[in-house]
């Protein structure tokens, strides 16, 4: 038999349900296939830095798979529509007997997989689908009457209860096969037709690929920082979070592996309160994937709370550009946006501050911010990004109440008390002391600074936004 594993956001060999199942029959020859669909990704606003990361990870994976005598084939197609017949054709030509893959939860990916399912069934090729990306598969954490939770806290309670009853179990790396069915593709040094807008070499240094790297990050985080996570996770100047998100997005590491490791550490060491908070973040990740599958309209650029689509968002292009480029005159917002533009990643607290600033201070439609993030994040993930944006814009499920609007200057003082993070990304303010750096024009515009004055008056903008939301509530 010839077994084909369709790789998607699961670029690893350990704890890989589809690969593991494909290798269960020792007589089967196994091939892994990765579909490269750049036009589709462009339509989905997938960042070049994220595609580049996956491509680099493929280069690492091809070696890991070769050690198991499993070939890695890259099949290029413009989009999902043109991919399906190519994939079916490949299966026929190479006499594939069974296909193994992980379920996707996004709307277009599900349509793609349904077309693959139908095509394989017409060809008489068996297909097996597995859940992978969540710790508990979407659709399995439901309210007493079988509905998808829209509030996080009861979701988490149920999620933890299920895990206490059925702790996660990890799958080993499959045994080496006796022979390869086909030859692996020769991978070019860089991802085809992609230009990464970040200084050459920097992404490789910041985000090295490989399962070993992901596990080293996990081990370092759990052993050194995990216990203090709850105290330090809101301080962007410190490396207090795991920075594993790009590895999750590409599936270089599984969420189960992370949970398992955290639980093991807690078991052997007392006082690991930080790790409980971190496990909550893994739960948020699952929660937003449950929302995506349960309420697919959020995949279609629609607000979770549909009535909020009536908000009269501003179309101020100059303000939007200033936000994108980190020139708003609000140092913490600008430092954060420059971190995103220069490194492909942004700290969670800063994602909340910049998203809240775009939607509540500039009153610009959250969809523009969501799209810009997706186009620039190395960890861009539809469910987490959409969830984070709708939370910040108060248009989502269990979102920030509309009247709780962050004050960007106070947030700045809280999360970057010494101004260290701002100094790193806004060099024109680097000489200012910790008191002045958060609001450099507080005592009137200082032209010597070569730093813009705030593009909006926070206090006034806040009142306008409150009025828009109040009017919306009164009307609905
Ligand atoms: P850690 O603090 O170490 O957390 C561990 C893991 O838990 C993360 O890697 C991530 O997989 C998950 N996680 C943490 N926080 C959240 C959250 N709020 N929602 C869902 N999962 C979470 N995360 C993405 O992975 N991709 C995105 O595109 C994305 N966009 C976001 C947009 C906005 C506006 C906001 C507010 C948040 C967004 N997040 C996104 C969530 C969060 O900011 C990142 O997951 C986190 O900053 C990644 O850093 P880390 O790996 O060090 O996280």
Automatic annotation (TrEMBL):
Q: Which cofactor does it need?
A: (6R)-5,10-methylene-5,6,7,8-tetrahydrofolate; FAD
GO MF annotations for this entry?
deoxyribodipyrimidine photo-lyase activity
Q: What is its EC number?
A: 4.1.99.3
- Does the record bear Lipid biosynthesis in its keywords? no
Q: Which UniProt keywords apply?
A: Chromophore, FAD, Flavoprotein, Lyase
Q: Which family does it belong to?
A: Belongs to the DNA photolyase family. Belongs to the DNA photolyase class-1 family.
The molecule here is called Deoxyribodipyrimidine photo-lyase
> What gene does this protein come from?
phrB
């Amino acid at each position: 038999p010839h077994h084909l594993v369709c790789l998607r956001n699961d670029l690893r060999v350990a704890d890989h349900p589809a690969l593991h199942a494909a290798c269960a029959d020792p007589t089967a020859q196994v091939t892994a296939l990765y579909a490269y669909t750049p036009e589709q990704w462009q339509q989905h606003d997938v960042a070049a830095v994220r595609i580049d990361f996956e491509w680099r990870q493929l280069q690492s994976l091809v070696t890991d798979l070769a050690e198991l005598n499993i070939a890695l084939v890259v099949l290029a197609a413009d989009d999902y529509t043109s991919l399906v017949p190519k994939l079916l054709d490949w299966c026929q030509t190479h006499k594939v007997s069974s296909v193994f893959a992980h379920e996707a939860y996004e709307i277009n990916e599900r349509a793609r997989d349904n077309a693959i399912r139908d095509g394989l069934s017409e060809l008489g090729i068996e297909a097996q689908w597995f859940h992978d990306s969540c710790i508990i598969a979407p659709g399995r954490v439901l309210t007493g009457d079988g509905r998808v939770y829209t509030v996080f806290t009861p979701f988490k309670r149920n999620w933890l209860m299920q895990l206490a009853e059925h702790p996660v179990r990890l799958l080993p790396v499959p045994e080496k096969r006796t022979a390869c069915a086909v030859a692996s593709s020769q991978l070019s040094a860089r991802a085809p037709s992609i230009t990464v807008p970040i200084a050459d070499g920097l992404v490789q240094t910041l985000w090295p690929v490989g399962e070993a790297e992901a596990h080293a990050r996990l081990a370092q985080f759990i052993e050194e920082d995990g216990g203090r996570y709850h105290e330090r996770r809101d301080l962007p100047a410190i490396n207090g979070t795991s920075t594993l998100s790009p590895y999750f997005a590409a599936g270089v590491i599984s969420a189960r592996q992370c949970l398992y490791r955290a639980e093991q550490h807690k078991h052997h060491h007392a006082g690991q309160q930080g790790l409980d908070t971190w496990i909550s973040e893994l739960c948020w990740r699952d929660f937003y994937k449950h929302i995506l599958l349960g309420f697919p309209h959020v995949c279609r650029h629609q607000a979770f709370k549909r009535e909020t689509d009536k908000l009269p968002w501003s179309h101020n292009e100059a303000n939007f550009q200033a936000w994108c480029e980190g020139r708003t005159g609000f140092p913490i917002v600008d430092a954060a946006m420059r971190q995103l533009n220069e490194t492909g990643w942004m700290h969670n607290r800063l994602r909340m501050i910049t998203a809240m600033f775009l939607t509540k201070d500039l009153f610009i439609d959250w969809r523009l911010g969501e799209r810009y993030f997706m186009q620039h994040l190395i960890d861009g993930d539809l469910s987490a990004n959409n969830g984070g944006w709708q939370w910040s814009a108060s248009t989502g499920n269990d979102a920030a109440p509309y009247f709780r609007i962050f004050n960007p200057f106070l947030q700045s003082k809280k999360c970057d008390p010494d101004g260290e993070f701002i100094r790193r990304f806004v060099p024109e303010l680097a000489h200012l002391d910790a008191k002045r750096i958060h609001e450099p024009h507080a005592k009137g515009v200082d032209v010597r600074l070569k730093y813009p004055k705030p593009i909006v008056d926070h206090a006034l903008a806040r009142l306008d936004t409150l009025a828009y939301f109040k009017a919306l509530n009164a009307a609905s």
